[in-house]
Amino acid sequence: MDKAFSPADIERRIYANWEASGYFAPSGVGPSYSIVIPPPNVTGTLHMGHAFQDTIMDALIRHRRMQGFDTLWQPGTDHAGIATQMVVERQLIAAGASRVELGREAFVERIWQWKEQSGGQIARQMRRLGASVDWQRDRFTMDAGLSQAVTEVFVRLYEEGLIYRGKRLVNWDPVLKTALSDLEVVAEEEAGSLWHLRYPRVDDGGFLVVATTRPETLLGDAAVAVHPDDARYRHLIGRRLRLPLTLREIPIIGDTYVDPTFGSGCVKITPAHDFNDYEVGQRHGLPSINIMNPDASLNDSVPSAYRGLDRSAARTRILADLEMLGLVERVEPHKLTVPRGDRSNAVLEPLLTDQWFVDIKPLAEPAIRAVETGDIRFVPENWSAVYYEWMHKIKDWCISRQLWWGHRIPAWYDTEGRWYVARNEAEARAAHGIDPSLPLRQDEDVLDTWFSSALWPFSTQGWPEKTPAFNTYYPTSVLVTGFDIIFFWVARMIMMGLKFTGNVPFREVYVHGLIRDHDGQKMSKSKGNVIDPLDIVDGISLADLLAKRTGGLMQPQMKPAIEKATRKQFPEGIPAFGTDALRLCFARLATQSRDLRFDMSRVEEYRNFCNKLWNAARYVLMNVEGHDTAVEGAEFSLADRWIRSRLAAMLARVESGFAEYRLDTVANALYDFTWHEFCDWYLELCKAVLQSETAAAAAKRGTRSTLITSLEALLRALHPLAPFISEEIWQRVRVSAGVAGDTIMRSPFPTSDAIPTDPQAEAEMRWVMGFIDGVRQIRGELDIAPSRKLEVLLQNASATDGEYLGRNLHYVMRLAGVETPRVLAPAQAAPISAVALLGTLEILVPMAGLIDPVAELARLSKRRLKADVELKKMESKLSNAAFAQNAPADVVAKDQQRLSELRTEIGQLAAQIARVTALKDQ
Question: Helix H segments across 540-599?
Answer without folding.
Answer: 542-550, 559-569, 579-589
